[in-house]
Design brief:
The chain is of the alpha+beta class. It has helices at 21-29, 31-39, 48-65, 116-144, 157-181, 184-191, 223-230, 282-298, 327-344; strands at residues 246-247, 254-255, 259-261, 268-273, 308-313, 318-322, 363-365, 369-371, 402-403, 412-413, 423-433, 444-448, 451-457, 478-488, 494-498, 503-506, 523-538, 544-553, 558-564, 580-591, 594-598, 604-609. A 5-stranded mixed barrel has the order 11-12-13-15-14. A 5-stranded mixed beta barrel has the order 17-18-19-21-20. A 4-stranded mixed beta sheet has the order 3-4-5-6, with helices on one face. Strand 1 (246-247) and strand 2 (254-255) form a beta hairpin.
Length: 616
């Protein structure tokens, strides 16, 4: 099966600490690049081509999900309603779920495509209907992205549709092979209504059809039956992100396949690439598919291997076949990846363990054919070269204990980034307890001596399992609020935020915990600016909002510092990437493992050193 979910009772790794093919390939390209992006969470500029790739893949999947036996070529894009999802965002396995195709009647014979050319026309017509909606949604996502870069006007819709049609053409070749082979066992099982544990998304539920498949015909295996049987598995476009992974039985590795063809009984894994295949990353795609072959092998009790691995380059319509590794090679690859997980994921990693040692560049021609490598080194095109020792940056951050800022009568005492921790554990009694309604957590207020704090439960699920608050809470009860995020709201009131790494538990009166009135609410820090970013949107009341922020790096770590646009002083607009700055009087916030600084009207940004090549 293409989906292999974690075993919650055995999983000691957790979804935040698994290794993936992309992480492994990034580390192999340059350990420091991996450290910046996966540990410090630097986010590279989000150029339109990244969103175009997602739009092409989603459009292909939305067409593959549909049936030419149920909808005509000109039908609206929402003819299939959204798939029902469970609480985790996966396609529902409940027998009570209502699926898009329930109650839909097959088209009359004269309304269905009768030839390959007609079927090709139907698929391309469906793409033309789906694509505008998909690309517009992703354009809006690009517009709202804090690291938006480039110019959306450069997106060529005709080229994008050509890539979608290339993928549909490759799929129709598979449909032709299925029709010509007409595998008796597979056809019989499909007509009888049998369903795989994770069937290909087709608008129907996961349960078998008691009276046979509603689109089954009699007599010779037909073209439209071949479309249904040949349909590959893919992530349902309606499912939540990263919910359909295949997770290693020991939970340290995971991956998500693009397409898996299974009609022949011998699975073929396909990776879709909306590109020419003429750059360094083509080497990564081969390694990714080899890892996916290993993942399929280990998630099928080491008894089943994939029969084929393919990369579909849609910008230069061609299929690159990747050799399937032997079981011995997959065992060796698994051992190598486990060693990598032990090195970079099992325990926290220091910067010194990830040197700026980039691998040589690789050369590829369109279609992913190897050729001579390009001139230059990997560092020349790295997004982080202005802060990395491999480029114009340095690991030598002179961290002063304090600094005299212009206009201040006092020294500003600075804290290293890795010491800025907003989490506290507090013991106190519940002063107010609101009722939990509609699966919403209760509103709680904690009293500790003469101090009060609002408890804001923003996540009901703890990352170690279970809920973040217990049943039976009542006024006057003694509780322990563990690893809560200490913040101040706009009124100056203390708020204890409960995210997936915090929780409220009943307390037996044991000593310990932090003093609410002893927690430092404001901090000063310094570092090099990695990049600036902005976010805009419209609130629930229709009022527009605008926030600005920057990513700050020192020799102990990195963090985002963010605030409302009007709360930043004028120095923000003068900052360049690579400048050294001081942030004074900031608050702290966090979500899971990410700590963030909050810039308020009481905060101050001061440039203390310009980057070496600054023209300011």
């Amino acid at each position: 099966m293409p989906v292999h979910l974690p075993d919650d009772e055995r999983d000691r790794v957790g979804k935040y600490a698994r290794l993936s093919a992309s992480q492994s390939n990034t580390y192999e390209a340059c350990p420091r690049l991996w450290y910046y992006e996966k540990v410090l969470r630097f986010k590279m500029p989000q150029i339109p081509v990244l969103f175009v790739g997602r739009a092409v893949e989603e459009t292909v999947c939305r067409v593959l999900k549909e049936s030419p036996s149920l909808i005509v070529a000109s039908a609206p894009a929402d003819t299939y309603l959204a798939s029902p999802l469970d609480e985790d965002g996966r396609p529902s396995r409940s027998s009570d779920a209502v699926w898009p195709c329930q109650g839909m009647l097959p088209l009359f014979e004269n309304e269905r495509p009768a030839t390959f050319d007609a079927l090709k026309g139907w698929a391309e017509a469906r793409a033309k209907i789906h694509y505008p909606l998909v690309i517009e949604r992703l354009r809006q996502a690009w517009e709202q992205d804090e690291r938006r870069a480039g110019d959306w006007s450069e997106v060529d819709d005709e080229r994008c549709l050509a890539m979608v049609n290339a993928a549909l053409g490759f799929h129709l070749d598979e449909v032709r092979r299925c029709l010509e082979a007409a595998p008796e066992d597979a056809v019989g099982a499909w007509r009888a209504g049998q369903r795989l544990l994770w069937p290909a998304p087709d608008g129907f539920g996961h349960a078998p059809f008691a009276k046979g498949h509603p689109l089954a015909e009699e007599g010779p295996f037909s073209l439209l039956e071949a479309w249904e049987l040949a349909r590959p598995w893919f992530v349902d476009p309606d499912a939540a992100s990263f919910t359909m992974n295949a997770v290693h039985p020991d939970h340290w590795f995971q991956g998500e396949y693009d397409l898996v063809y299974r009609w022949s009984g011998q699975p073929v894994v396909v990776d879709l690439k909306a590109s020419l295949g003429a750059n360094d990353r083509s080497g990564d795609y081969v390694k990714q598919l080899e890892m996916y072959a290993m993942l399929w092998y280990v998630t099928h009790d080491r008894k089943e291997t994939v029969a084929g691995l393919q990369i579909w380059y849609l910008g230069h319509p061609s299929i690159k076949t990747v050799e399937v590794p032997s079981t011995a090679d997959m065992d060796a690859l698994e051992a190598s990846l486990l060693e990598r997980w032990n090195t970079i994921k099992r325990d926290p990693v220091e910067r010194t363990q990830c040197p700026p040692s980039p691998a040589p560049m690789r050369g590829f021609e369109p279609g992913g054919s190897p050729t001579s490598p390009p001139d230059g080194i990997r560092c020349d095109r790295c997004d982080w070269r202005h802060v990395c020792p491999g480029g114009e940056g340095s690991d030598d951050f002179p961290l002063e204990a304090s600094v005299q800022l212009p206009g201040n009568m006092h020294q500003t005492v600075l804290s290293p980034i890795n010491t800025l921790d907003p989490r506290i554990t507090v013991v106190g009694e519940l002063f107010t307890v609101g009722a939990a309604r509609d699966d919403r957590p209760p509103r709680l207020t904690l009293k500790q001596g003469s101090a009060f704090a609002n408890i804001n439960i923003v996540s009901q699920d703890h990352h170690e399992g279970g809920r973040t608050w217990p049943d039976g809470l009542a006024k006057g009860m003694l509780v322990r609020v563990e690893a809560a995020v200490f913040t101040l709201n706009w009124k100056g009131e203390i708020v204890l935020k409960i995210d997936p790494f915090a929780r409220v538990v009943t307390d037996d009166g044991a000593a310990g915990g932090d003093d609410l009135m002893g927690v430092k609410a404001r901090h000063n820090t310094s570092g090099v600016v990695v990049y600036r970013y902005e976010k805009r949107g419209v609130g629930k009341t229709g009022k527009p909002w605008h926030r600005k922020g920057l990513m700050l790096l020192d020799n102990t770590g990195a963090m985002k510092i963010e605030g409302w646009a009007n709360d930043w002083n004028t120095q923000y607009d003068l900052v360049e990437e690579g400048d050294t700055v001081v942030l004074e009087n900031i608050g702290l916030d966090a979500w899971a493992t990410d700590v963030r600084g909050d810039c308020t009207r009481q905060s101050r940004l001061q440039i203390v050193q310009r980057r070496a090549d600054s023209t300011a």
